[in-house]
Structures are given as structure tokens and as C-alpha cells.
Design goal:
six-stranded mixed beta sheet; 125 residues; 8 strands; two-stranded antiparallel sheet; globular; alpha+beta
Length: 125
């Protein structure tokens, strides 16, 4: 059985997908970009500023699902440029702590709305 998770404290889905889905004891969060849910506007800034907003969105979705960043087991980070890896990693390490989740980081030619960072997450419910 699966259940869609929806919260107004993170950007609304703008297509045929859910912000997150709870299934079999896990929370699967769709890729999050740096949209401020209060204004529905993109936080442009550098990779640090965008990563900060992305992880705030992820944290808000997890809270709505009854989970938290401490329960994250896997992340995928998409970067427009691997040159932004150190900036992203600095902020990432402030939100996700030991034992760190498994992670893949991929350079993507183009991300939604031309952002610098997108992150998706799998966490324990």
C-alpha cells in the first residue's frame, strides 16, 4: 500500500507526481529544487543558497510524513556543475549527520528551471 504525502510547507507538485510517497516503511521524496513554498518563487543564488532551500524543503516534507532528516538512508544529488560540489557538500553536511546516508552525486546537463541543485531522498517512515 502507498500513501501520497502533501504539505504546504514545501513546493507543490507541478505535474503528475507526489511531493513524497510513503510505502513499506519508507518515505520516497521527489526531487526538490530551490523553490520557496511561501512565495512559490525560485531562490536563485549560488549552490550553497540553493542547497539550503532544497534541504529545508526536504526537511518539511519529512516532518509532514512523521519522519526527519535523521532517518534519511539514501540521497541522490543532481548538480548542474560538479564544480559546485564543495559548496553543496558544505551545506549538506550541516543538515545530514552521521551515520550519513548513502549518496550518489551526478552532474546533469540541465535541471528543472535551470537550478544548480536538485536532491531526492529516501528515508525511514
Amino acid at each position: 500500500m502507498k500513501e501520497a504525502i502533501k504539505t504546504h510547507t514545501a513546493p507543490a507538485a507541478i505535474g503528475p507526481y507526489s511531493q513524497a510517497v510513503r510505502a513499506n516503511g519508507f518515505i520516497f521524496i521527489s526531487g526538490q529544487i530551490s523553490i520557496d513554498p511561501a512565495t512559490n518563487q525560485l531562490i536563485e543564488g549560488d549552490a550553497q543558497q540553493q542547497t539550503e532551500r532544497v534541504l529545508q524543503n526536504v526537511s518539511n516534507i519529512l516532518a509532514a510524513a512523521g519522519s526527519s532528516l535523521a532517518k534519511v538512508v539514501r540521497t541522490t544529488v543532481f548538480l548542474k556543475s560538479m564544480a559546485d560540489f564543495p559548496k553543496m557538500n558544505e551545506i549538506y553536511s550541516k543538515y545530514l549527520t552521521e551515520p550519513y546516508p548513502a549518496r550518489s552525486t551526478v552532474e546533469a546537463a540541465r535541471l528543472p528551471k535551470d537550478v544548480l541543485v536538485e536532491i531526492d531522498v529516501i528515508a525511514l517512515a
